[in-house]
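Below is a concrete protein record.
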Amino acid sequence: MMTDQERNKLAMRFGLIIGGVYVIVNTVLYIFGLAYFFGLTFQLLVPLFILGYLIYACIDIRRQNGGFIKFKQILGSLLLINLIVVGFSLFYKIILYNLIDTNLAANEKEFTLNTLGHAIDESTGDMKNFYLDLYK
């Protein structure tokens, strides 16, 4: 059986790994361009990766605890891991938006409006063509 201190150290290690990978992945996406950084595909893949690694962390913590663990203990470990990851994310986003690229918020707004406007134009055009074909 692991002590709470050992379990917290393990959770902190997993949190630092996930937080570091999050920063590296988002930096690479930012370097590749706005289509990748704000793109829906990568914005869905990054949280799925984090969720998968959290599940792996829980299984590993349970394995190192002898195969059994109380819900309270694993919940505490998960909260610690998430707290570290959110701290990394918040710190990274503050530095990115306020120090590295101060126009990023405006670029994000423009990218989102262009993407959303294009999607709305396509969907309304498809509906218009559907109804025109229907009543021919």
